[in-house]
Amino acid sequence: MNIEIVEKADHLKLIEIWEASVRATHDFLAEDDLQELKPLILEQYFDAVDLRCAKNGNGEILGFCGVHDGNIEMLFISPDARGKGIGSLLAARALKEQGATKVDVNEQNE
Description:
- By secondary structure, the chain is α+β, with helices and mostly antiparallel strands.
- The chain has three helices and five strands.
- A five-stranded mixed beta sheet has the order 1-2-3-4-5.
């Protein structure tokens, strides 16, 4: 697994992962909320954080993490890659290389 800095060209893949991950884990979000958030994340939020992604040996992005001002603002893993340590790897890198010291979690998210 390689952790790399995200390029702008990767944003469309990241938004796919974000949406699939949110659909798999955020059942408290209504469809309207999801559709309202999607363009904001793609057009504003990705540019507001230091983004890193996890790529497999084939170069496929399996998850990503965004840090801003010492806070992990986003951590999303492709549903088919969950449970394989990718989130832990991204979080550890955020601590070590991106200066993360805290994280916010939706209280409704188990």
